[in-house]
Design goal:
By secondary structure, the chain is mainly α. The protein is built from 9 helices and 2 strands. The chain has a two-stranded antiparallel ribbon. The mean pLDDT is about 80. Binds calmodulin. Interacts with NDUFAF3. Belongs to the NDUFAF4 family. Pfam families: UPF0240.
Amino acid sequence: MGGRLTRVFRTFNVESRARREISKEKPTPAPRHPTSRLDELAHHPEIQEEIYRKDDRLLTLLKDVYVESRDPPVQVKVGGGEHLPCKQEEKRLTKLGNLGDLDVKKVPKGRISIVEALTLLNNHKLHPQIWTAEKIAVEYSLELKEVNSLLEFFIPFAVQEFPKETKKAI
């Protein structure tokens, strides 16, 4: 509905408005700046010859010029090595999961892969006496504080299957 209304106002009296714009006097264009250098060269052939003529005296002077470039000695800034790593991160081999090529092969010390995290959480849940926080920290090269936090706040899901006769009772 709105499109029809705007189209009516847009097309109202179009021809007379167009004639009015066409019949208006055209504004005079601004004066153009003369390109003096190019025009003068075209009218004076002796200047053109002077430009394209080789000057032997200048060529011999140019051949005598010899430029020798030397780099300044490299200065090492004091404390400039702050941005460079002091040593390479130590890596450890992971306890591989069952994904084959998709498994992460090496992990920095102090970190674990997702497969390892799920494995150690499940081991701790099934056998908490064997898989204590201290043993997990030693086994996976982690800090004891981080392992305690991991075991406290992350719990793996438990899948429970109900027998068929119990499902009807639920």
